[in-house]
Amino acid sequence: MDLITKKSSSTNTNSDPVAFSSSSSPTSKNSFTVSSSSALSSANMYPSFNSRSLSSKNLTASKFQPKIVKGDGGYVLEDVPHFTDYISADDDLRTYPNPLQDNPAYAVVKQYFVDVDDTVAQQTVQTRTSERGIHFRRAGPREKVYFESDEVHACIVTCGGLCPGLNTVIREIVCGLYHMYGATRILGIEGGYRGFYARNTVPLTPKVVNDIHKRGGTILGTSRGGHDTSKIVDSIQDRGINQVYIIGGDGTQKGASVIYEEIKRRGLKVAVVGIPKTIDNDIAIIDRSFGFDTAVEEAQRAINAAHVESESIENGVGLVKLMGRHSGFIAMYATLASRDVDCCLIPESPFYLEGPGGLFEYMEKRLKENGHMVIVIAEGAGQEMLTESMRSMDQQDASGNKLLQDVGLWISQRIKDHFKRRHKMVINLKYIDPTYMIRAVPSNASDNVYCTLLAQSAVHGAMAGYTGFIVGPVNGRHAYIPFYRVTEKQNNVVITDRMWARLLSSTHQPSFSSLNDIVEEKEDEKEEPTTTTKNNLPNGLQNGVVSKDISTAR
């Protein structure tokens, strides 16, 4: 099956999205009427945008309702919200020709505008009897936009921890709005979410952001917490902002989802767009998060240093702690790329220290064979064994993340104590924690290109009137994904997958998991599918969804 598919053809040739509104028909609880957005676009728009003048439709949408569209062959589109879903024709919602069609830089592109029916499949591996499954709306520029260039008043905010590529995303959003759409009013919100109501803003232009991609960190500053929905939306409304770009991890995107819901409740023509950021690569659905490639590359330097130190002395042990609170992707990929690692410990694969098949037994064997070894451990691994500090493990930071103990220092001491008791073997352990060095570096070439695509896709979506979504690649194609799909669960290493088997084959370490643990892991995967259920809907979305069969929807 193709990665990009088109929904069933229909007689409606309008390129704008179709808006669904609840039907009053008593014969069908979930029947809908279809209002063509061409009718919405025929109204006149005032030259200046006044967000206070917009009124919301009388929807039952104070409670979140996913937007599900069904088609033939088990096709399911998990669509993202659009202005036409909650802003009526009476509010002067107009469309305009996309200015990209007159941009000489894009004159060479044969088919630059994305068809409204293009979608991206979540699953690419199919059998002959497989249903088509879940799809997401394809990202990219549309033929019609919902903002004039001089109407756009955008803002950008960065939240959470640092990550390589933050400045690149900021730069490309600004340059994309300026150079592709002629939008010149862009604000940077300083200091994270609380910057909306407690900090100053900074005007952003291509000149201001010209070389910021060469620096680490974020020029806007960042923080955890500070999310006050009412104050944030009040600030957005008072400033006349109509495009909000929010860069952050899953906690930040949960906050972005709440902001979108409040904006929708007030009936404001404001696009809320999330650009997912997590150095751990633990955002669900998307292929990877920006900064991950850079983190893996930089982790190689620490692993190489640990290897040099360990092999230069008798019974040398190099221990490297890498990022990964709940997901061990950085540790796993850095280990596979290095080929110098003898043992990799991640949160998804429990391990034990003492006894047959434990870490200490494996270390003794490895040191006798090679005279040195390198261990990579993710920061979230082994937390359940730090029993002396269990009380502090219940504490959380301002973003709601559980505060973790330093497993690197803990396991270093346990290793030293173990071998000290065994007088026959003296070890020399070197512990390296490159966490803050990795977080602070600028993004590499691969991540720079990726950040550009993310930023431009986000801008295209906002200009086309989409809102309440995050942007990211799904099977190599950029798509618009509803907030709830990336905030409902985290992406984790699957220890019954081939990638983890490749790592075990590379390091020759024991799995530390019993056969029963592996069987239970596989059974859990069968019982809780991560993609679709028998009704072709994601888990938890069987009831209360806004849905329509596309054979009659358009």
TrEMBL record:
Allosterically activated by AMP. Keywords: Allosteric enzyme, ATP-binding, Cytoplasm, Glycolysis, Kinase, Magnesium, Metal-binding, Nucleotide-binding, Transferase. ATP binds at G161, R224, G225, G249, D250, G251, T252. InterPro entries: ATP_PFK, PFKA, Phosphofructokinase_dom, PKF_sf, PyroP-dep_PFK_TP0108. Mg(2+) binds at D250. One of its GO terms (cellular component) is cytosol. It catalyses: beta-D-fructose 6-phosphate + ATP = beta-D-fructose 1,6-bisphosphate + ADP + H(+). Its cofactor is Mg(2+). The keyword rRNA processing does not apply. HAMAP family: Phosphofructokinase_II_X. Catalyzes the phosphorylation of D-fructose 6-phosphate to fructose 1,6-bisphosphate by ATP, the first committing step of glycolysis. This is ATP-dependent 6-phosphofructokinase. It comes from Papaver somniferum. The lineage of its organism: Eukaryota, Viridiplantae, Streptophyta, Embryophyta, Tracheophyta.
